[in-house]
Task: structure prediction
Amino acid sequence: MQLYYWFRSSAASVLRDKSFLTTVTATMGIASGVFLLVLTYAYVLLIKPLPYPQAEQLQVLQYQRLDASAVLQSSAVLHPAAEKLYKQLRQWQQPEQKIAETATFQQALLHLTLETVMSDPRQPRLSTGYITPELPQMLGMPLLLGQDFSEAQLPGAMNPGVIISYRAWQLLFEQRPDVLSQKLSINGVSHPVLGVVAAAFVPPRLHSGLPTVDLWLPWDYNNSDFKGSWHLADDHSALLLKGESATLDLQLAALTPLAQHEFAEQLAGEKNFAGWQVQLQLQSLKSALTANSGNLIFLLIVAAAALLLIATTNILNLFLSRLMLLQKQLAIRAALGARRRQLWQQLFAEALFVMLLSVMLGLILASGCFHALLHWFGSEIPRSSELRITAFSMGCAVLVAIVLAFIIASLSVRTVRYQQLSRALQSNGKGAGVQIPKVFRQSFILLQISSAILLVFLSSLLVQDAIQKLQRPLGFNADPLLQVEFSVTTLDWKGWNSYAPKVAEMAEHLRQQPGVEEVSFTYSPLVDRFQMSATEIGSGRRFYPFHRNVDQYYFNLTEQALLSGQGFVADDIKAGHSPKMIVNRTFARKLIGDSAQTDDFQQVLGKRIQLDIEQTPFSIVGVTEDIQLPGYEMTPPRFYITNLGTALWLLIKLEPGATFSKENMIKMLQQTDSQFALTDFSQLKDEVAKLYFPQKIILLGAISLAVFTVFLSCIGLIGVMHYNLQLRQTEFSIKLALGAEYRHIVLESGRDYRKVLLSSLLLASLLIVVCDTLFSSWLAGVLNSGDTARQATIVQWQTLPLYLLTLLLVMGCGVFAHGLPLHRLNQHSISQNLRGQ
Result:
């Protein structure tokens, strides 16, 4: 009851001081909102269990392929290997073949892709998961209508059917109650709707580039590009297991030698894969979903905590200043017998009331940020659907409010000279009963300046890194290019040779369209799809570049400069042509030698490269300029080889000012073949803008962090220095009255801060060196998008000007904070200053 009385009276007292309440609530609301936002995201990503039954038992199989030098080439599973491992695990589940009596586990196959629904006139393209019947049970997938897959949908049964998400039910059928009597046509197969998933279910997003799954189809009907391929990994497919760790380890130990034997048998006689090994490992589903987000989360927590610390010191300074104004009230209470503990209770109640208001505002701001993140970055953020204000967020908010209120009250009460409060009441002496100790004031300045230098410097590094990536040339002209991709919506595949003449004819029709300058059958230059092993004939050196299949029009269409040699010609795309290759600048330099400081690419021409998946070596006929993908620090080695002049994807170059609509493209595809369905139609410059968008957000966030840090520091320093001036106001006024010049007063006042200023610089420098020593690797990884090729350190000669600029900015903030109170002193008359007005 007494606590309620203190809280109510303290709230009334604070509410009367609207300026103080607004300033504190706004400052702490923003700072606590950022802190709670980061803390909630860290909880969801690193601590909160996945929303599936026995989620800790869910594992993803890592099919690790190591070359003859024991270098890891890929951890993604091979499509046919996944099918064979799945069948073997099902066999071991039979009672007569169980490895151990108590060995109970589950397994399921999953292939993620995008499919076009041809039965809908709009032909929407939805995220699709091809699965085996065990997956819904493993994930605890709740159905709103209908039923799950059964053994009728096991691999090999070829029984159609589809389970749709709640969103797909709305999108495709407008929530019709008779949805279970409907069918969807996908890849030429009519699938009856078997069930509708409950709206609350969130499927795992094992492929970050794909939206949440809307359609679930039987495994048999997946149309993966890697079906039957033992050479290239399929990062869209996965084999999931569920069971106790000991049980799964037992299965893995028995499965590994079988996987190695099968892999060696399938690639027997291929010298490029001689000596390769297969190792099977398990990765928790939670770890697979969150990827390597721990480093970024840690960096965000440190930055948010530092921001909260700066804001807290500023708020503490405001509370101390207000405490001086309440000196008479405290003196009256002391005279009436109030003890120091009761004074502390009053201060704690006031601070708690203000902190609770602040964290409530912080929760509102954090909730708004979550909605914005989901709207703009939902597909890029792991477990984004779970980001919301939860009981954990509110619990943390209350805890933050209590802790901050306790710190503020405890430090504030230490400034109260309890024995002198009654004398302060009698003499009306300012500062007699409440004084901020000198060590407090110096500590505030030390903390403000050192924290500001550290945060502003790290923010400046982010700004510099983002600007460099935004200004780096792409290496080709994306502005006039359209990216088009289509599919053959049938499982009755007749071979590409039956479709290639139609596609080639369609390309000729496209070239005759008004506004179309050129057409090239090639995939988007913004995507590195395939990486493979390549061996230099003669030296035996092995490289792992990315490769792209292009035609003779590609380099002219993209305006990608040729540095040496020649490009491809029409004869190079014909069947039986002599294998030719064009390499980029980075790959050419590696072929010359990493230590070579020359761009004489003539010596690269004529070199022969053997690819692991090809029997005949390729001859290098040209060197082209690098393409720098947005957001990446380094350019990987790449090579270009020819296709046969047709493909399921193409680039269209438009004439200046010309347009070509999606409707025209759909019409042309339908005229070419009724089974052709448009799956992607976009302007390449829009895709570039999307890739640059995260860097722009980082740039904006880093600038905001630096500005807010400087703003908070400036407020705090002004408060402390204003209090220091109050203590010496009479002294300075007397000196001015005796003829002292104002600049001498400024210099004399500044001497009080020289030592603490030097200490702040040393402390900030020490903190930066410690960060560089202990956390340089992961910090460089965060700055460079995981590119470890760049020097993993933040203390370099190149960053010295940035650090000096940071010092000038923060020191300028300190000079302004020191000069503002003195300027006000100079503005008033000496008589006013002597009277303390």
Notes: The chain has 21 helices and 24 strands.
